[in-house]
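[recover] target loaded
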């Protein structure tokens, strides 16, 4: 089962989105093993992530914005102790122990099979939680405001 949460990004012009992207998204969302929630209350997110075997970050890295971004959802997955598969986002390469990357469906399939073949180590989960706690929004805001003062 694949679960997608949040609004569908439509950065392209409306016409381009309607012709090229929307049919693909509609086909994906129509698959029997896909669930899509346009939005959920924040308090529901941990309960849903807890049910995941793997967290995914399937950004379109042909877009420079995505390839150089830092998806904060990584720390939601880390806090819940989940392994992650992502497209090759530059900033996530510093977590090779916890984040497997792939450009193709074949690479994703290989990573999924590998991660599902054995239990995710408890020591990884503890380290992920520590990283998530160190990178909370509160700590980021505290650091930023300390620079402004």
């Amino acid at each position: 089962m694949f679960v997608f949460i949040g609004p569908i990004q439509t950065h392209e012009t409306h016409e381009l989105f309607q012709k090229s992207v929307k049919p693909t998204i509609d086909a994906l969302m129509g698959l029997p093993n896909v669930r899509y929630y346009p939005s959920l209350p924040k308090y529901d997110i941990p309960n849903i992530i807890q049910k995941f075997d793997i967290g995914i970050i399937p950004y379109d890295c042909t877009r420079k914005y995505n390839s150089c971004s830092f998806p904060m959802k990584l720390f939601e997955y880390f806090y819940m102790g989940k392994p992650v598969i992502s497209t090759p986002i530059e900033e996530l390469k510093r977590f090779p122990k916890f984040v497997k990357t792939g450009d193709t469906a074949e690479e994703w399939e290989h990573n999924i099979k590998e991660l599902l073949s054995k239990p995710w180590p408890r020591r990884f989960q503890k380290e992920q939680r520590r990283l998530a706690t160190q990178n909370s929004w509160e700590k980021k805001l505290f650091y930023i405001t300390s620079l402004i003062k």
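[recover] notes: The chain has seven helices and five strands.
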